[in-house]
Design a protein that fits this description.
The protein has one domain. The protein is globular and about 65 Å long. The strands form 2 sheets. The protein has a 6-stranded mixed sheet, with helices on both faces. It has a two-stranded antiparallel sheet with strand order 6-7. Helices cover about 50% and strands about 15% of the residues. The protein is built from 13 helices and 8 strands. It is an alpha/beta fold. The longest helix is centred in the middle third of the chain and has 27 residues. Helix 3 packs parallel to helix 6 and helix 8 runs antiparallel to helix 12.
């Protein structure tokens, strides 16, 4: 190779690297809808995972996601807690559970009690002597947890289990949390709203079918034992996230797919609630939504049959396109 060719070769390599960097799979979609007298309303919809994978904070996040957020008037995500009133929800009917579901519910109560006791012990270990003297002794606390768990309905039990699981989760190497939390920090001035109705998640859980108690056990089983275990799961989760974005099924047993038997509630019913609210947004402004990746695409199998949220938006009159 002659010295004269070297600069040209380096330029080609840099151009190739640049193109590769910009070839990230789109995970942000722009949905627009023009309404006479109100102008064009824009909804940005971002596919996300609960874990906050490193890939969700790549160059695409900086180059594409953050500018869309800066252009938005509001941010909507899961778990904010300010959801508006929705359609009346009666709660879960135990008669809908099959024999397997009842057995899983009973098993879940016992395992959630164990989870609560482990979380209580972890919290005690973090207290100083004075603070420790003010809390209930372990036996009394255990009896209190046992009564609470026995008396709780399914959805209350689910919420309680999530709190205990969060107390046991190992600290992350990346303190930023998931992508919705990072976006809220990036725009501290932006109003943040819950993507669900106030009873939306209860409605989704109750509509998930006779095996809905799988979700309770999933919370218990999903607690990593240590930071190393959590870190070891990241490559697989990253591949599964990419597979979903490309319309492929994730790997067998993936955390992003193991609740697929509950898609009738977690995807179909939830999407119906979301699109009922989204189609009413016609203020001529831009709004940003962070949505679980599974909800964006169709769920069509033995346990569910519905299109994804992107198709729902198109059917509601929005023009939907990926942001590259």
């Amino acid at each position: 190779m002659t010295p004269a060719l070297l600069p040209r070769l380096l330029a080609c390599l840099l151009a190739l690297a640049c193109c590769t960097a910009h070839a990230a799979t789109p995970r942000l979609w722009k949905a627009t809808h023009a309404v006479e007298g109100h102008g064009t309303t824009t909804l940005y919809v971002l596919a996300a995972t609960p874990a906050g994978l490193p890939v969700e904070f790549d160059a695409y996040f900086t180059r594409t996601v953050l500018p869309a957020l800066r252009a938005s008037a509001t941010l909507s995500a899961e778990g904010v807690g300010d959801g508006e009133e929705g359609p009346a929800t009666q709660g879960c009917d135990l008669r809908q559970l099959d024999e397997q579901g009842i057995g899983m519910l009973n098993d879940a109560r016992q395992r959630i009690l164990t989870l609560a006791l482990q979380a209580d012990m972890a919290r005690r270990d973090a207290l100083d002597v004075k603070a420790l003297a003010k809390v209930l002794d372990p036996d009394t606390q255990a009896q209190s947890w046992a009564r609470l768990i026995e008396m709780s309905d399914e959805f209350t039990l689910l919420q309680f289990a999530r709190v205990q699981a969060a107390a046991l989760a190992p600290p992350s190497d990346r303190p930023g949390g998931n992508v919705a939390e990072a976006l809220a920090r990036a725009r501290p001035d932006i109003p943040v709203h819950d993507i669900d109705y106030r009873t939306g998640m209860m409605h989704a859980y109750c509509a998930a079918g006779p095996r809905r108690t799988m979700m309770l056990l999933d919370v218990v089983d999903g607690v990593p034992q240590d930071g190393a275990t959590a870190a070891a799961a990241v490559p697989r989760l990253t591949r599964d996230f990419d597979a979903l974005l490309h319309g492929r099924a994730p790997s067998d047993g993936s955390p992003l797919a193991r609740l697929a038997p509950l898609d009738a509630g977690l995807v179909c019913a939830r999407n119906r609630d979301w699109i009922a609210r989204m189609r009413k947004v016609a203020d001529g402004r831009t709004h940003f939504y962070v949505v679980p990746v599974r909800n964006l695409f169709a769920a069509r199998h033995d346990d569910a049959d519905c299109g994804g949220l992107l198709d729902d938006l198109a059917q509601a009159g929005f023009t939907v396109a990926p942001v590259k």
